[in-house]
Amino acid sequence: xxxxxxxxxxxxxxxxxxxxxxxxxxxxxxxxxxxxxxxxxxxxxxxxxxxxxxxxxxxxxxxxxxxxxxxxxxxxxxxxxxxxxxxxxxxxxxxxxxxxxxxxxxxxxxxxxxxxxxxxxxxxxxxxxxxxxxxxxxxxxxxxxxxxxxxxxxxxxxxxxxxxxxxxxxxxxxxxxxxxxxxxxxxxxxxxxxxxxxxxxxxxxxxxxxxxxxxxxxxxxxxxxxxxxxxxxxxxxxxxxxxxxxxxxxxxxxxxxxxxxxxxxxxxxxxxxxxxxxxxxxxxxxxxxxxxxxxxxxxxxxxxxxxxxxxxxxxxxxxxxxxxxxxxxxxxxxxxxx
Length: 338
Hints:
Elements: H1 37-59, H2 65-71, H3 75-106, H4 111-126, H5 129-137, H6 139-142, E1 145-149, E2 155-160, H7 161-164, H8 167-192, H9 196-204, H10 209-239, H11 251-262, H12 265-294, H13 306-324
Antiparallel strand pairs: 1-2
Helix pairs in contact: 2-12, 3-4, 3-8, 3-11, 4-8, 5-8, 8-10, 9-10, 10-12, 11-12
């Protein structure tokens, strides 16, 4: 006799009941996140290296942080930083003005202008900056006097070259002429990125050529010019250290003079490094906001700036803290409401 506890064999599903899932149905499979073991190992290795480097900065006595603190804001170093900023500003403004002229000379239909601009760019990109600076520093050996007069004719006015071109002047001339060659190619690339239909439409409306360049071409070309131009300006800021060969009191030269007297090479180099990092960081921030401004025509809804993101994050934290400290009001049952 069969026992009543025996289970009946599975039969057909009752009408209206859902069918059991198939064994290979994707809905029944367990989703397991991918495990990136190599990524975790690499992150751990990098974290260990960063921790070791940080520990070395804090414990290695060769860094001499007390010497760094004594000189990083000293009057001599601050004056040297000001000279570095002056050289960078002069060379940037004059270099990009001359570079813009050279760029449009290369884009001109005149073969003479094209040849002169191409030759200038070729020569000044071929000669190292330090060679150009030394050459301009010794200009008086080549031309002892500079004057004005009729070409290939008499000279009406002349002056000693050393009196009109000093050490700072020679540095500015060398940096400007060197920078203009690179700025010309940057500007030319930005202008070529503008659609030719813009100029054709402007010409059809009767807009003068100079206004086309100033109001139509350059504003659109700035989006392509700015990233490379910002990188070039940062490189120029660091490249001003080359003028130490002219005994100009910029940052790197003053650091060399100081550690030549006291022998504290490492902390003084760290002072120069810290100032260069601060200055390049400020230039990078300025570049970000200038690029954001010129991107308004192409990007209608630009992403929030890091400052706005930080404010939004702080606002979210304050809102969460306020909600956490808000007293909880008990909810009365419906039967207790009168």
